[in-house]
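Supplementary Note 3. Input sequence used for the single-chain structure prediction.
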Amino acid sequence: MEIFEQYESNVRAYCRNFYDVFDRAKGALIYSESGKKFVDFFAGAGALNYGHNNEYIKQKILAYLESDSITHGLDMYTKAKREFIEKFSQIILEPRKLNYKIQFCGPTGTNAVEASLKLARKITKRTGIFAFMGGFHGMSLGSLVVTSNIQKRSSSGIALSDVTFFPYSESPIDSFDTIEYMEAVLNDGHSGIEKPAAIIFETIQAEGGVNIASPEWMLRLRELSDRHGILLICDDIQVGCGRTGPFFSFERAGMIPDIVLLSKSISGYGLPMSILLMKPELDVWKPGEHNGTFRGNQLAFIGATAALEYWEMNNLEQSVKYKEAFVREYLTKQILSLHKGLTIRGAGLIRGIDFSNVEDERITQKVVEECYQNGLIIESAGRKDSVIKLMPPLTIELELLQQGCSIIRQAIQENINKVLEVESYG
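The predicted structure, written as discrete structure tokens, is reproduced below.
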């Protein structure tokens, strides 16, 4: 550890909670240098939906490397890119009747966010953006503008303007109709808020604490955007690529965003890649107007193509639904009964256990640490980090899924018992 502390910047974060030196990984298991085995309920913050070193994807990447094919191509035409576009259109876009053009952005999700905001402003000639409380869209300057966390926003060092935040669908403000309020703001010439270029939203706020937008709310948001000529951007970076069951998380609402952002698991293998999907009429870019040296990550194209093949061959959507049913039942029957203040929510294989009504502000940190000590990697999220977020690889074996859930239950039970003891002695 000393070499990391001596030479690596203080900005490092995940290693402060998961502090072993990791060496190998396969499927839903990670091994430390010392040989300790961990079940992974973190999945690279959503970048490893298909598991660590997925064998099918790995062999495709190895074969490509062995062939001395292009490994860096900027945005030039390459065979690897063509095969990804063909496969993505065939497996994902065409069956869903989605007419999108594809923009390859810089390698991280935040770059796709930046591109979408630039594009929306270019199209509409307006500067403002509507975003939502609890939303997270990245840590680069443009993305921080639409990220709501005050602590993260303060890292910018400058004022972040041209954004208006509204309560999210599952708002902590009871009986508040966000869509109705947005409508009033847009129709009132004295609201002090100008019509924005775009509305950016997540169907599930993962970093925000696994807050879920209802299908009805998303449909109303789509209708509001249409009425007022506002572009609707869906940030599907963390909960897309099958995390909720369907490939896109917005499919459950039966609505189509104007722009969709994908990154994290789109490459299938944890390789850097991000894309922006836009309706054809929105493609008003001039050549090179948004570019980047690594927007043509050829190995990511190979991994992404293989991941789509794997998705189709293994009927992963049905597999996720089966595992979703197990996790939902387990959390409902085995976790909720541990304390009256607990709540659970989620979709597919992203689930949140909310401790915000438990009288111990540090309980989630204690549970996460105990899980780690017992061989499970899992993180907390949301306001005051009060939600434990379950996000295993979609390919996880049921046995490991059960094992991980059992570790969570044990850790919660032990720490809840301490809380109950304090409450009883009042």
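The first helix runs from residue 2 to 7. The chain has a mean pLDDT of 95.
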